[in-house]
TrEMBL record:
InterPro entries: aa-tRNA-synth_I_CS (IPR001412), aa-tRNA-synth_Ic (IPR002305), Rossmann-like_a/b/a_fold (IPR014729), Trp-tRNA-ligase (IPR002306), Trp-tRNA-ligase_bac-type (IPR024109), Trp-tRNA_synthetase (IPR050203)
Compositional bias of kind Polar residues: 194-205
Gene Ontology terms for molecular function: ATP binding; tryptophan-tRNA ligase activity
Example of a GO biological process term: tryptophanyl-tRNA aminoacylation
Binding site for ATP: Q12, P13, T14, G20, N21, G147, D148, D149, I186, K195, M196, S197, K198, S199
Binding, L-tryptophan: D135
Pfam families assigned: tRNA-synt_1b (PF00579)
Alphabetical UniProt keywords: Aminoacyl-tRNA synthetase, ATP-binding, Cytoplasm, Ligase, Nucleotide-binding, Protein biosynthesis
Designated name of the protein: Tryptophan--tRNA ligase
Top EC category: ligase
Amino acid sequence: MIQKTRVFSGIQPTGQITLGNYLGALKQFVNVQHTSDAFYCVVDLHAITVPQDPKQLRERILDLTSLYIAVGLDPTQSTLFVQSDVAEHSELGWILQCVAHMGELSRMTQYKEKSDGKDSVTVGLFTYPTLMAADILLYQSSFVPVGDDQKQHLELTRDIAERFNARFGKTFTLPEVLMLKQGARIMSLDDPSNKMSKSNPNPQSRIEMLDPPDLIRKKMSRAVTDSDREVRYDPKLKPAVSNLLTIYSLSANKSIEEIEHDYQGKGYGDFKKDLAEILVAMLDPIQKRYAEVRNSGEIEGILARGAERARIAAKPTLDLVKRQVGLGSTQHL
Ligand code: ATP
Ligand code: MG
């Protein structure tokens, strides 16, 4: 049997999934699922690096899994599971904390952004990238589909894996980032200098996958634009319109040049109105499928089977790691 390439990625159940998560990450998950042995995780342990309401967190885990399926992930093809159901993630996470250096973690921009202006932050927020490294390395993943904001964490994962392999002998596959040329960094609708995020306190900053049509129209009409009236792609001079053009292009499957041409001589109003309708049409089947899946009563069973498969895949790596490091009392692991 030919072994398929191992792929791993995850999304945090920290809020409603956005168009940024979809265009930058989720669409890639779907694209590679048939040609790879993919593990897609709901990374709940990452979510608690910032405060979460326990009841809401549990709901969001099921919401996110339902969305995974609604956008086209097939749980019989890909392994869908929850991070905390597979204890090996935490165990390897700790071991990798003892391989990573304070200095390299201090350079992580996600930590700087998420801790900026806060009176106190958790230790977990700081060590987040080592748990992410464990998630990926545990499955001997070759490819990791993510958005641009996770590129730095992926580089750190490779550094940690290389250091571990050099010190203890070949243990981990070095993973490569799988990132789109277009759509890897969708920006906020209210401020094109910030990336769109599901945990941004301002809901106007993002389109959520489950937003009803009228809310999408309203958010689009309020989305900021740039000073002149020209629909033209120029990320430096026209960051807001360029971001909308990227969203348009990916959602309508049209090139940016084609769209620029279509809106020559027209203003931002027409452009944004049309974009809203394109998004409504794109999201409609996903929302319908989501409602079916979320109410099907099948999600918990899918996650239980996913966790079982994930544990089987994860255990040999953790056993090898422990043997290499000299941990534990069982000599024959
Ligand atoms: P949070 O604000 O809680 O960190 P988030 O929107 O950044 O939420 P994550 O769960 O951290 O979402 O990331 C899930 C995946 O979505 C990652 O692969 C990440 O790179 C990708 N992603 C997040 N935001 C964007 C964006 N604006 N554009 C493209 N990809 C994105
Ligand atoms: Mg994030």
